[in-house]
Design brief:
Blueprint (H helix, E strand, L loop, with lengths): L1 H11 L3 H8 L29 H12 L10 H13 L5 H8 L6 H11 L1 H14 L17 H12 L4 H10 L8 H6 L16 H21 L18 H10 L3 E2 L2 E5 L5 H21 L1 H9 L3 H6 L2 H7 L8 H12 L3 H14 L5 E5 L2 E2 L6 E4 L7 E5 L20 H8 L7 H14 L20 H13 L4 H9 L2 H4 L6 H6 L12 E2 L2 H12 L53 H4 L19 H9 L1 H17 L4 H13 L8 H14 L5 H14 L5 E2 L1
Antiparallel strand pairs: 1-4, 2-3, 5-6, 7-8
Helix pairs in contact: 4-5, 4-6, 7-8, 9-19, 13-18, 16-17, 20-21, 20-22, 25-28, 27-28, 28-29, 28-31, 30-31
Length: about 700
C-alpha cells in the first residue's frame, strides 16, 4: 500500500518541498516564527561595486541552479516600466528621451526619485491597497444603493503620497477613532472596515447582517494583515492552521463592539460664511415679499373650498390649519407657494433659497467605525450559527502567535489588537506586506500563495530574502517608499523580460527570477494609459467618484434599475480608479480587464486574455473617443512627414521608437483606410490607426 501511495505521489509530481511543508507541526510552521535577518550572501566577483541586497540573494540562488541573470533592459523599456509601476502612468516622450540621453551614473535613481515624489504615486499604490480593502461606491447585495465613502479612498492616496509609516497606516485604519489624539483624518481611516456590504432589502434580520459584516471584517483582517485563512475557523477548528474555533471568536470579539455611523464634515469647496450671508439676505427679501402679499393670500384662502384644500400638498394643508397671524415664515412660504406659486419673483427667490437650505451641499459624508461605551458580549457560535450561543469569550489572539501585552488592560480592545498587529515580534505582518509589494513588481510573490501563509500555502522561493526584507521594512521605520526604492533599484527588477530557452528548461515559471516578467496592466491602468497618451487625462486628484461613458443597458442588469449619466466635463477623463464602482453592475471596461468585484478582499488580481478585451479597446465608446483624441494629438503635435507622424504615435503609446519592420504595416493600414473612404478627412484614417495602437499588446503591457 505504501509503495502504491509513493507511486501516486511521484506521478503527481509532489515535490519534497511541499511534503516537508505539510509534515511540519502547525505551531512550528515557518510563518509563525519571527523573521531573522540573515547575513547577505557573498560572491568572489560582485556584479556591481555596491550591490543591492536583493540581488545578492537572487544571484546566490541562480548560481546554485547554474542560471545566469538576464542583462539590464534597454533604457526606453526601463523608463516605461518604472513609470507604470510607480505612478500607473506612461512617461512622456520628453521624459523618456531625457533619461535615455542622461549619461550621469545616477540617472536611473534620479528618475525613480521623481516618480516617488509624484502625487500620481499615491494614486497608483492606493489602488493596490483598495483591492484588499474591498472598496466600492455602493452597498452591495441586490439593492446595491450608492454610498459615499470616497473620503476613505482619498485618505489612502494621501497616506501613500506622504509615506505614512505602515504601522501607523494599519493602526489608523483598524482603530483610528480610539487613538488619544484622534481627529477627522484618523476617523476617516476607519472606513477600511466600513467597506463591508450593507443589506437594505425589506424584512431582513438586522442582527444577522451585523454579524455578517463582522465575519467579513475578520476575514479581511486575516487576508490583509496576517495572510491567514482565519475564516476557516468560523464553524469549527481550523483543519490545517493552529486557530481554534474559540480563538476565532476571541478575534471576533475585537470587532463586536462598534457602532457604524456616518461622519459629516464641512465641504471644503463651500464658503459657508458667504453661503449663510446670502441665505439670510434671501430670507429677508422673501419675508418682505410675503408680508406685502398678505392681503392677496388672505383673499385666495377665503375662496378655497374643502375639495380644493384636500387637493393641496400635505404641508400646505397643515400650514392652512394654523391661523394666518400665527404662521411662521416657513408656513407662510408654503401657503404662498401653494396658492400663488406662479409669481415669477417669488419663484426665483424661493428656488435659490431652497438650494442654499439643502444640507447636502454643505457637508461631505463618509462611513466610519466608532467604539461602543458598553461592550457587547461575545459567544462562540455553535457550527457558525449566530442564533446558537456557546461559551462566552473575551478578546484575544491565537496562541500560536505572540500574546497580547496585558500589562495595561485586562480587557483588550480594537486599539490593542491593532497595536499587536504591528509589533516587531508579530511574525506575519511585515512578511505579508513585503511579499505583496514584491508580487506587484514581479507578478508573483516570494510566497506565491500571498493570501495563505499557513501550512497549506506554498513555501517561499527565497525564504532568506523574504525575512531580510521583512526585518529591514520594520527596522527602517515601515517606510513604503523606501521599500519601493529598494526593489526598483535592484538589478533583479531592471532585468530584461525577454524569454530564454535555458530558463524555460530549468525554471519554466521564472520563480528564480533570471529575467523580469511581462505583466498585463491592471484594468484601471489600461484606461489611464489611453487617457494619458491621448492627452485627455485630467490632473485632478481625489474627490467624488465619476461617471465616464459606458454601454447602454448596464445599469438595468441589477435588481434595481439605475441611471448612469456620463460626465461631460473634466470628470469624464479622470483616472480609472475614480470610476464610480457599483458592486452589482460594475463598469464593463473594468470587469473585462479583471478588476475585483469588491465583495471581499482581493490580494491578487487574475490576468486573463480574452477577445472581449480587444473588442472593448476597439469599440467601447470611451476608448473610441480617446482614439479620436490620440489621432488629433498626433496630427497637431507632429507636422512632419507621414513616417515622422507614425513614429510619434508609436512613441506616445509604447515609449520607444519603432523598429524598421514595424513601420510598413502601419503605413499599409493607413493607406487602406484612406482608400476605403477617399472623401473622408485625413483624420479619419488616423483614428483607425490610433484604435489599433491603443489595442496593441505592448500598449497594455508592462514589459
Amino acid at each position: 500500500m505504501r509503495s502504491f501511495c509513493a507511486l501516486i505521489i511521484a506521478l503527481c509530481g509532489v515535490t519534497n518541498l511541499h511534503s516537508a511543508s505539510t509534515a511540519t507541526p502547525a505551531a512550528d510552521h515557518w510563518a509563525f516564527q519571527a523573521p531573522v535577518q540573515a547575513a547577505l550572501p557573498r560572491f568572489s566577483k560582485q556584479p556591481h561595486t555596491d550591490p543591492n541586497p536583493i540581488d545578492t540573494f537572487i544571484l546566490s540562488r541562480l548560481k546554485k541552479e547554474e542560471l545566469p541573470p538576464s542583462p539590464e533592459a534597454d533604457r526606453h523599456t526601463l523608463a516605461r516600466r518604472v513609470s507604470l509601476d510607480l505612478t500607473g502612468l506612461p512617461p512622456s516622450i520628453q521624459t523618456v528621451e531625457a533619461f535615455v540621453n542622461d549619461s550621469r551614473p545616477d540617472a536611473y535613481s534620479r528618475l525613480v526619485e521623481s516618480l516617488l515624489e509624484s502625487p500620481r504615486h499615491g494614486e497608483r499604490w492606493a489602488r493596490w491597497w483598495l483591492d484588499v480593502a474591498r472598496y466600492a461606491d455602493s452597498n452591495g447585495y441586490s439593492v446595491d444603493a450608492p454610498r459615499e465613502i470616497w473620503l476613505y479612498r482619498d485618505w489612502v492616496i494621501n497616506a501613500m503620497n506622504r509615506d505614512l509609516p505602515f504601522d501607523r497606516f494599519v493602526i489608523q485604519q483598524l482603530a483610528g477613532d480610539m487613538l488619544p489624539d484622534a481627529g477627522d483624518q484618523e476617523r476617516i481611516a476607519t472606513g477600511f472596515h466600513r467597506n463591508t456590504q450593507i443589506n437594505q432589502e425589506g424584512g431582513i434580520d438586522k442582527e444577522q447582517f451585523r454579524i455578517e459584516s463582522i465575519v467579513d471584517r475578520l476575514a479581511t483582517t486575516g487576508t490583509a494583515f496576517l495572510g491567514l485563512t482565519i475564516g476557516c475557523a468560523q464553524c469549527h477548528d481550523h483543519k490545517y492552521d493552529p486557530i481554534s474555533q474559540k480563538e476565532y471568536y476571541q478575534l471576533f470579539a475585537f470587532f463586536n463592539n462598534q457602532e457604524e455611523p456616518a461622519l459629516k464634515l464641512p465641504n471644503p469647496d463651500i464658503d459657508l460664511a458667504a453661503l449663510e450671508a446670502e441665505q439670510q439676505k434671501l430670507t429677508t427679501s422673501l419675508d418682505r415679499h410675503l408680508a406685502q402679499s398678505a392681503e392677496r393670500i388672505a383673499q385666495a384662502e377665503k375662496a378655497l373650498s374643502p375639495d380644493k384644500i384636500a387637493a393641496l400638498p400635505k404641508p400646505a394643508q397643515k400650514a392652512l390649519e394654523v391661523p394666518a397671524p400665527e404662521r411662521s415664515f416657513q408656513q407662510r412660504r408654503i401657503v404662498y407657494g401653494a396658492l400663488a406659486g406662479d409669481d415669477p419673483e417669488f419663484k426665483k427667490l424661493n428656488a435659490r433659497l431652497r438650494q442654499l437650505e439643502d444640507p447636502r451641499g454643505r457637508s461631505i459624508s463618509t462611513l466610519v467605525m466608532e467604539e461602543r461605551s458598553e461592550p457587547r458580549e461575545t459567544h462562540v457560535h455553535i457550527k457558525g450559527d449566530f442564533t446558537r450561543h456557546g461559551d462566552r469569550v473575551h478578546p484575544d489572539v491565537p496562541s500560536a502567535l505572540p500574546p497580547l501585552n496585558r500589562a495595561t488592560r485586562n480587557n483588550p480592545n480594537r486599539l490593542d489588537f491593532a497595536r499587536w498587529l504591528v509589533r516587531r515580534d508579530n511574525p506575519l505582518l511585515a512578511r505579508v506586506i513585503v511579499n505583496r509589494v514584491w508580487q506587484q513588481y514581479f507578478g508573483r510573490g516570494i510566497v506565491e500563495t500571498e493570501n495563505d501563509f499557513g501550512t497549506q500555502g506554498l513555501p517561499p522561493s527565497h525564504p532568506d530574502l523574504l525575512d531580510w526584507m521583512a526585518v529591514e521594512f520594520m527596522e527602517t521605520g515601515w517606510s513604503m517608499k523606501r521599500l519601493h526604492r529598494l526593489i526598483v533599484n535592484s538589478a533583479t527588477y531592471r532585468q530584461a523580460s525577454t524569454a530564454r530557452a535555458d530558463i524555460v528548461a530549468k525554471d519554466p515559471g521564472n520563480r528564480l527570477l533570471a529575467r523580469q516578467n511581462r505583466l498585463r496592466l491592471d484594468a484601471e491602468l489600461v484606461r489611464d494609459v489611453a487617457l494619458s497618451v491621448s492627452g485627455m487625462l485630467s490632473d485632478e486628484i481625489g474627490g467624488p467618484s465619476v461617471h465616464p461613458p459606458q454601454p447602454d443597458g448596464v445599469m438595468s442588469l441589477g435588481q434595481v434599475k439605475r441611471q448612469w449619466k456620463a460626465d461631460t466635463d473634466h470628470d469624464r477623463y479622470r483616472r480609472g480608479m475614480y470610476t464610480f464602482f457599483f458592486r452589482a453592475t460594475p463598469h464593463p471596461a473594468l470587469s473585462v480587464f479583471d478588476a475585483p468585484d469588491s465583495f471581499s478582499a482581493c490580494s491578487r488580481r487574475p490576468r486573463s486574455n480574452t477577445p472581449l478585451q480587444a473588442l472593448t479597446l476597439l469599440n467601447d465608446e470611451g476608448f473610441f473617443e480617446l482614439a479620436e483624441a490620440l489621432a488629433r494629438r498626433t496630427l497637431a503635435e507632429c507636422t512632419g512627414t507621414e513616417n515622422e507622424r507614425l513614429e510619434h504615435l508609436f512613441r506616445l503609446c509604447l515609449g520607444r521608437p519603432p523598429a524598421a519592420k514595424e513601420l510598413p504595416p502601419l503605413r499599409r493600414l493607413l493607406q487602406t483606410e484612406r482608400s476605403a473612404a477617399p472623401d473622408a478627412p485625413e483624420a479619419t484614417a488616423w483614428v483607425s490607426l490610433a484604435r489599433v495602437a491603443l489595442n496593441l499588446d505592448e500598449t497594455i503591457t508592462r514589459e
